[in-house]
From TrEMBL:
It is found in: Cytoplasm; Nucleus. This is Signal transducer and activator of transcription. The keyword Cell inner membrane does not apply. The keyword Phosphoprotein applies. Residues 137-171 form a coiled coil. GO terms for molecular function: DNA binding; DNA-binding transcription factor activity. One of its GO terms (biological process) is cell surface receptor signaling pathway. SMART domains: SH2, STAT_int. Belongs to the transcription factor STAT family. It comes from the Eukaryota. InterPro entries: p53-like_TF_DNA-bd_sf, SH2, SH2_dom_sf, STAT, STAT5_CC, STAT5a/5b_DBD, STAT_linker, STAT_N_sf. Residues 592-690 form the SH2 domain. PANTHER family: SIGNAL TRANSDUCER AND ACTIVATOR OF TRANSCRIPTION (PTHR11801). It comes from Amphiprion ocellaris (Clown anemonefish).
Amino acid sequence: MAVWIQAQQLQGDALHQMQSLYGQHFPIEVRHYLSQWIEGQLWDAIDLENPQEEFKAKRLLDSLIQELQNKAEHQVGEDGFLLKIKLGHYASHVGSRTYTYDRCPLELVRCIKHILYTEQRLVREATNSSSPVGGMMDSMSQKYQQINQAFEELRLLTQDTENDLRKLQHNQEYFIIQYQESLRIQAQLTSLATLPPADRQLREPALLSKRATVEAWLTREANTLQKYRLDLAEKHQKTLQLLRKQQTIILDDELIQWKRRQQLAGNGGPPEGGLDILQSWCEKLAETIWQNRQQIRRAEHLRQQLPIPGPIEELLNELNSTITDIISALVTSTFIIEKQPPQVLKTQTKFAATVRLLVGGKLNVHMNPPQVKATIISEQQAKALLKNENTRNDSSGEILNNNCVMEYHQTTGTLSAHFRNMSLKRIKRSDRRGAESVTEEKFTILFESQFSVGSNELVFQVKTLSLPVVVIVHGSQDNNATATVLWDNAFAEPGRVPFLVPDKVLWPQLCDAINMKYKAEVQSNRGLSEENLVFLAQKAFSSSSNNPDDYRSMTMTWSQFNRESLPGRNFTFWQWFDGVMELTKKHLKPHWNDGAILGFVNKQQAQDMLMSKPNGTFLLRFSDSEIGGITIAWVAENPNKRMVWNLMPYTTKDFSIRSLADRISDLNHLLFLYPDRPKDEVFSKYYTPPLSKAVDGYVNFPFLSSCSSIPCGCLLSVSCGRSDSMLDTDGDFDLDDTMDVARHVEELLRRPVESQWGGQQS
C-alpha cells in the first residue's frame, strides 16, 4: 500500500495528473479501498500481447470483483451504509457485459498497469524534487525502508532459530535413543552375573567396550546439545533485542507521532492519517513475537524432556519473561482510540467514539470477542490510574450506552468497537483550585477491556485514556471550554502527568496554535499574516510596537489568554478572538478568502490608512469593543473637515437579516474598497438578486438599508426593531438629519404595496 499512501501526498499538478487516471472506467474508490490487494498482484507477469494470457487476466478480474464484494459486505453501521452500496455497485458493474473488462479482461490489466506505472513515476519525481513534499516523502520512504529492512532481518533470524530448534530436537531425539541403548547395554552387563564364568568372560569385554563407546558418545553429545541450547538461547536474545528495538520505534515513535497528530487535528491541524501502515507493522510484530515465544516454549520443553546441568534453565526463564513483557507492551499499547470523543462534551447530548486493537486478528483476540467499557474519570483519577493506584469502580459521572463488543472485520483485518450512542447523563465535579472555572476542569474517557491472547494462554487488562474533555451543560460555556482544549492540545508534552500543561508559552508558539485553529474554523487557506499577528500581540500585551521581533521572546500566560479581561473590556483575549472566528465562519468566509476583509486593524491604523485615500474609500475591520463584530471605516468630507467615520459594529444578528455584501451595496457613499478597488468589482457577485415576480399575489418584503437621502457625513442602517445610531462615539452626527432619515424610512414602509411594485395585489 506504500505507493498509494505516497500518491495521496502529491500536490499541485502531480496530484491533478494522478486524479486524471481515474474515472468511470476505473473509479478512484476501487483504487483506495483495494489498494493493498491491487499492489499485491503480479500485473507485470501478464503479457498483454499474448491472447493465451487472457485466462490469467480473467482470474484477476474475478478476484477483483470478489474483493469488492467482500469489502462491501463487511461495511457496517451508519458510516458504512453508503460505502457498502457504492462498492457493491462497482462490483456488479465491473463484471457486467456492458463493461469492456468482461469481454476483454486484458484491458483491466492494461488499465491497472498504466495506473500503477504513472503513480510510481509521479511519486518518484516528487521524491527527487526539492519541494517540501518531495523531501517529506523521501524521508518517509527512508524511514519505512529502515523499518521494513528490520522486519526482514527479524524474519531471517526467526527462520534461523527455527532451523536450529529443529536440528536441536532431531539431535536430542537421537541422543535419547542412544541413551536408551546405553541402558540396554547396562542391563545386559547386569544379567551376565547369572551366567557361568566362562560365558561371562566371553561376552563381557565386548559389552564393556560397547558401553564405553556409547557413554563417551553420550558425554560428547550432551556437551554438544548443551552448546546448541546455549547458542539457540543467545540467538533468541539477539532476536528479542532487535524485536524490542523495532517495537520501540513503532510504538514509541510512530504511534506516538500519530497520537500527537490526532491531538493537533483537534485544534484544526491536518488529519492524523490512516492506521493501515501502523497496523501492518503491529501485525508483523505480533507474528514475529508469537513465533519466537513458541520457539522458546519448545526449547523449554526439550530442556524438561532431557535435563542437562548448566545455565540454560535460567536463560530460558529470562527469555520467557522478556518475550512476555514484549507481547504485553504490544497488546496494551496498540489498544488505541481511533476516533476521539468530542473534547467539549455537553451533558445529555449524544456522542461517539471508536477504539481499535492494532494487532487485529493475529493473536486470536477476536476468538473470544472482548467487551469494552467506557467511563468518565477526573484528572486526579487519571493520575492515580497511571500510578497503578486502586481506582476500581471510581468514576466522575454516568455515561449511557457505555458498553460495546469489539468486532473483527475479516476483509480489513481490523478489530474495533464503535460506540455510536453514548450520552453523558451526569457529571460529578471536583473542588476547584483558586480562580479555576468549570470550563478549565478536565476529564477523560477511560476505555478498558480484557484480552485473551493465544487461546487464553495470556490474559491482559488493557486501558486507554481519551484526550482531555471539558464538560459543559450550556452552549454559552462552549467558547471558554474550547480555549481550555486548544491550550491543552497545543502545548501538552508526550508522557506528561495527566493533564499538566505549561502555565505560559512563547508568543510565537501561541501564534502557531491560533493560526491553525483559525484556518480550520474558517475553512480557509488564508491564515493570519504577520501583520495580523502583530495586531493580536498589541491587543494581548497592550503594546503599541509594530515590530514583530519585539514579541518573539515574550510569553503569554493562561490567565492572559482566557482568565483576565483585556484592559477596559469585559471579555478576555480568547473570547474576542473566538468571536472573530465565529463571525467569519458563519457570515464572512468568502470575503475573508477574497482578501476583502483586513479585519485585524485598530481604529487609529484605519484612520491613518484612509486619510490619504479618495473620499468614499472604506475598509472592514473587526470591532475592538464588541465580541464578534465587524465595522466599516470610511473617509468622507465633513462641512468642517475631512475625517474617517466608523459604523457601529455589525454582528451575527445583523447578518442573519441582511448580508455584508448587500449592506455595502446599500451604502451609496462607500465607493472603493481599500486601497482602490471599486466596491462592485469586489462584492457584486455576492449581492442578492433583484426581486422576482410575485407568486400568488405576494412578494417578499426585503430588509432595506436606504442611504439615498443620507447626508455625506452621516449614515443610518435600519434593522428590525433597532434604532441605534450607526456611528460610534468618535463620529459626529446631526440629530435632525438622523430623524429625517428615520422619517423617510417610516414613510417608505407605510406606502401601499401596489405603489412600490407596480400594483400587485396584496
